[in-house]
Amino acid sequence: SVNVNGYDLFGQFWKPEGTPKYVYIFVHGLGGFITLNRDFYPLITNDGGIVYACDHIGCGKSPGARTSCTVDEIVEETIKIISLCKEKHPNLPIVIHGHSMGGLASIILGLTKSDEIKDDVKCIIAEAPWLSKCPQRNPGFIEHAGIRALSWILPTFLVPLGFQLFTPDVDQRFADLVQNSPLFSTGITPRLFLNVEEKQKFAIENKLNWPSSIPLLYQQGTGDNMVDPASNTEWINELIEEKEK
Predict the structure, then answer these.
(1) What torsion do the CA atoms of 74, 75, 78, 82 make, to the nearest 10 degrees?
(2) Are 82 and 2 in contact (CB under 8 A)?
(3) Measured between alpha carbons, how far is 31 from 244 in angstroms, rounded to an integer?
(4) How far is CA 60 from CA 41, 69, 103, 183, in A?
(5) Who contacts 34 (Cβ-Cβ below 8 Å, separation ≥6)?
(6) Long-range contacts made by residues 43-46, C-beta under 8 angstroms, separation at least 24?
(7) Rounded Cα gap, residues 87 and 169, in angstroms
(8) Distance (Å, rounded) from C-alpha 69 to C-alpha 189?
(9) Cα–Cα separations (whole angstroms), residue 130 to 49, 95, 152, 167
(10) Which residues, listed in sequence order, are joined to residue 88 by a DSSP beta bridge?
(11) In the 3-class helix/strand/coil scheme, how is 149-206 assigned residue by residue?
């Protein structure tokens, strides 16, 4: 467990059979929880990695209003997990893997905390990071103004997402299990929505400042319906072109 803004967050780790060779920290996405992506943890433990993951504020088994966390709080959470891992495994390299909202948080972590983490974090993986608007649900001017007003009155009010979370290629049995789980959240709060917009803008404006000291593995599928794949691909391509100069 780590404490963020007064909340004791629920975390878990998965150990390999032998002595760990590295630490792998997974940062989950919007509405998710740490065991949602548990299917690939055995790949890490079989490779000798030890997996650490934590439910964000208001997600999974962690306390707080549902999906009320911010990207800043996820960054703080990740920093504290890094410190915990350094304490427990002082000689092991650390890999950060963030998915969707966790991918955005991992990018913000790299852009703003590189001096703090560069000696310990050997790689950041950003999988389908939430860097662009969701094509299924892009609020117009009036709706956006309503969200901003709601953020002053009821910042943690859970607003339904209003779009399909899973693409057709996902096994429907898995989708049903996730969406019926009490750990899953199908909404978003004005507090989080506006914070994500702010961090998306920051990540786009500062992408060329990505630190050379931290390798970035960037993953983006073309069939993703939660972000704009073309915009996400443009983000990394511009960074690649700059680094190749």
Answers:
(1) -170
(2) no
(3) 36
(4) 18, 12, 18, 4
(5) 10, 11, 12, 26, 28, 53, 54, 55, 60
(6) 44/14, 45/14, 45/15, 45/16, 45/17, 46/16
(7) 41
(8) 9
(9) 26, 19, 24, 16
(10) none
(11) HHHHHCCCCCEECCCCCCCCCCCHHHHHHHHCCCCCCCEECHHHHHHHHHHHHHHHHC
> Mean pLDDT, the chain, as a whole number?
91
Q: How confident is the model at residue 142 (pLDDT cuts 50, 70, 90)?
A: low
Q: Which amino acid is at 152?
A: W
Residue 135 banded pLDDT, cuts 50, 70, 90: low
Q: Which helix (H) or strand (E) holds 99?
A: strand 94-99
Per DSSP, the three-state class of 134 is coil
- What is the rounded CA–CA span in Å between residue 151 and residue 209? 31
pLDDT in tens, 143-182: 777 778 878 888 888 887 766 677 788 889 988 898 889 9
CA atoms of 140 and 153, how far apart (whole Å): 20
208 and 104 Cβ atoms separated by less than 8 Å: no
Q: 225: buried, middle or exposed (CB in 10 Å: 19+, 13-18, 0-12)?
A: middle
Query: Which residue is listed with tokens 């608007």?
Result: 133
Two structure tokens written together for 183:
């750990």
